[in-house]
Specification:
Number of helices: 24
Distance between the termini: 96 Å
Shape: elongated
Radius of gyration: 35 Å
Helix content: 55-70%
Strand order of the largest sheet: 6-7-8-3-9-10
Largest sheet: 6 strands, mixed
Strand content: 5-15%
Number of strands: 10
Length: 639
């Protein structure tokens, strides 16, 4: 009777592979945190404890039923080799028993598969939801410094790896333990001496597993990180903007070459993983084959001297096969468990990232119970510096990704900025590129938190407000508006899901975009394409303005909101904005005279400071930076 221990020992061994750019250093030997298993149980597995216990019961029943046929085979062989009265009946009953055991094992196996699939899919859902919720609440600095592909890898590959750890690796471990105990118990009932001889090779199994275990764990973590890098490359190159850059600069061939070098790294990891894993199991196979030979050699001699029957020798050989298979896996159990826990560790690395911008304890709702927001915006001696962490890759998690969020040692972008925007006023921000205008606007909706000083709305520090109420009170139109790959209607309703079609149309009319939408193939049900590429820059801008108008905030921030509009479209939108912004506080960044001239207050920003302030006429008369900008930039708008 042959041995095939590899069939039982190879499950879950070989790590996945991915790719990495050359030069990417992959850390080795990272230790898993203490208490990881307990945390997995508390945070994710506990809600499914009943089904997990049922799953373990099904696994145990299946494992026990797997070893029972050996004793039935013993009955059949003895009945054949030592005919006696009733031998035929014994053979019939044993054969029926084999069928019954197979049917029962099949039923428990089906039940086990159902429970495993249900728990696995629910766990994937929980993990993905938790990760998505946590990540999308991270501050803007996180997304400006994190590779999108690396994040996607955490939500896909690592979540699936974690699911396999709970329902695959640990389920297999339980099955192996039960099967070994049952098989060894039956072996001892046949011959305790032969059982001790067979189990004497176990230390060799353990020694080999320890020798290759650490290397396999390192390869698994490396493969996960490389796969994240692969997702990043594809995400950056396969979106519309990335593909356009490659084509416009004539780089497709270079991109293929770079990807080929990365793919070669993937192949190298795959070869190393395959060779190490196969070498390990080949040696285990040889040891198991030697053990089987010893069983039949000694068992045959015991049968000849009458201390064992032929049926017992055959049954013992079958049980050895059924014991060595799970033993091969169990000797590698520490490696498999650690390898599986790497996925959970990587998931928790994301979940453990702090939310620097979050509701403080006792945060209040802007506008109070009735939600009425006056819209006064006050900057009180505000200073600000962006995080200066140099590593923008999610791979820095391997070295502690907290540095990306904690580091605020960059040079100051704003220095002592103070001004007041009264309710209903329009305040324009002008100045050279990089002066800090957009940064000022980003601090109002709390995309970032100030380094010093305070930003107040209606007299309350924005850090003391609930994010929900602050977000509802502030609407932003950026220079490069983002549209989702969805219908025009869906993009508009993102601002207010409860908006009626009539309200949507009214907002679009106010933004001078309704007629353009109606001219599209499917009107408001037209898919705008990736990032709105089916629309022109001016059309996207006006659609973004309509989205903010639909939101109906008390404070509106326009960051170069008319930058992509031609003169005719700009005039129409300016007229719409004058009506829409009435009674609202607005902060406007613009270079065009038509936007700035009518502002209640103009703030001239340079080097992170407000160097001039006043109305258009006052600043022109005062000379200085504003007058210079007007003559060099704004005057062109009148020519």
């Amino acid at each position: 009777m042959g041995m095939h221990p590899v069939m039982g020992g190879g499950r879950g061994m070989l790590p996945g592979t991915g790719l990495v750019r050359r030069g990417q250093e992959v850390p080795e030997g990272k230790k898993l945190p203490k208490g990881l298993v307990g945390r997995v149980w508390r945070e994710f597995a506990r809600p499914y404890r009943l089904r997990l216990f049922l799953l373990l019961g099904a696994i145990a029943a299946t494992s026990v039923l797997t070893v029972l046929p050996a004793r039935l085979i013993e009955v059949i062989v003895d009945a054949i080799s030592q005919p006696a009265p009733g031998a035929a009946t014994a053979i019939n009953l044993a054969a029926l028993g084999l069928i019954g055991v197979a049917l029962a094992a099949g039923g428990f196996s089906l039940w086990q598969r159902y429970l495993s699939a249900w728990i696995g899919e629910e766990l994937i859902f929980d993990l993905r939801r938790a990760l998505f919720d946590h990540v999308q609440r991270m501050p803007l600095a996180f997304f400006t410094r994190t590779q999108t592909g690396a994040l996607i890898s955490r939500l896909n590959n690592d979540v699936i790896g974690a699911q396999r750890a709970l329902t695959g690796t640990f389920g297999t471990l339980a099955a192996n333990v039960v099967q070994v105990v049952a098989a060894v118990g039956l072996m001892v009932s046949i011959s305790w001496l032969l059982t001790l001889i067979v189990l004497s090779v176990l230390p060799l199994f353990v020694f080999l597993a320890k020798g290759v275990g650490r290397r396999l764990q390192e390869l698994t973590r490396e493969g996960m990180q490389l796969n994240a890098e692969m997702n990043t490359v594809m995400t950056e190159r396969f979106n519309v903007a990335g593909a356009a850059v490659a084509k416009l600069f004539g780089r497709p061939a270079d991109e293929v070459e770079e990807f080929s070098r990365s793919a070669r790294g993937v192949a190298d990891v795959g070869v190393r993983s395959a060779v190490v894993g196969r070498l390990f199991f080949t040696i285990l196979s040889l040891l198991a084959a030697a053990g089987t030979a010893v069983v039949y050699w000694l068992g045959g001699r015991f049968a000849l001297d009458g201390s064992m029957s032929a049926g017992q020798v055959v049954a013992f050989g079958v049980l050895v096969t059924q014991a060595y298979q799970p033993l091969s896996a169990l000797t590698n159990a520490p490696v498999e468990v650690l390898t599986a826990l790497v996925s959970f560790d990587r998931v928790f690395e994301i979940l453990d990232l702090p939310h620097p911008i979050a509701d403080r304890p006792g945060a209040v709702r802007l506008g109070g119970e009735d939600g009425r927001v006056r819209g006064e915006v006050v900057f009180d001696d505000v200073t600000f510096a962006y995080p200066s962490a140099a590593d923008s890759s999610l791979a820095s998690l391997e070295r502690g990704f907290g540095e990306v969020l904690d580091a605020t040692t960059g040079p100051p972008v704003l220095r002592g900025v103070s001004f007041v925007a009264e309710p209903g006023q329009t305040v324009a921000l002008v100045g050279p590129s990089g002066a800090g205008k957009t940064t000022i606007c980003n601090l109002v909706p709390r995309l970032y938190d100030v380094t010093g000083g305070a930003v107040r709305i209606d007299g309350i520090d924005v850090r003391d407000l609930t994010l929900e109420s602050l977000t509802a009170a502030v609407g932003v139109v950026t220079q490069d508006p983002h549209l989702f790959h969805d219908t025009v209607r869906a993009n508009l309703r993102y601002a207010r899901p409860s908006a009626t079609d009539e309200e949507i149309i009214a907002a679009c009319r106010a933004a001078q975009i309704h007629d353009v939408i109606m001219a599209l193939p499917d009107g408001y049900d037209t898919i705008v394409g990736e990032r709105g590429y089916r629309l022109s820059g001016g059309e996207k801008q006006r659609l973004s303005i309509a989205r903010v108008l639909l939101k109906d905030p008390a404070i509106i921030v326009l960051d170069e909101a008319t930058a992509h509009l031609d003169s005719e479209s700009e005039a129409a939108v300016q007229q719409a904005l004058r009506t829409a912004l009435a009674g609202r506080t607005s902060l406007v960044i613009a270079h065009r005279l038509s936007t700035i001239a009518g502002a209640d207050q103009i703030l001239v920003v340079d080097g992170g400071r407000i160097v001039q302030r006043g109305t258009h006429d006052e600043l022109i008369r005062a000379e200085g930076l504003y007058a210079d900008l007007y003559r060099t930039q704004f005057a062109r708008a009148t020519t």
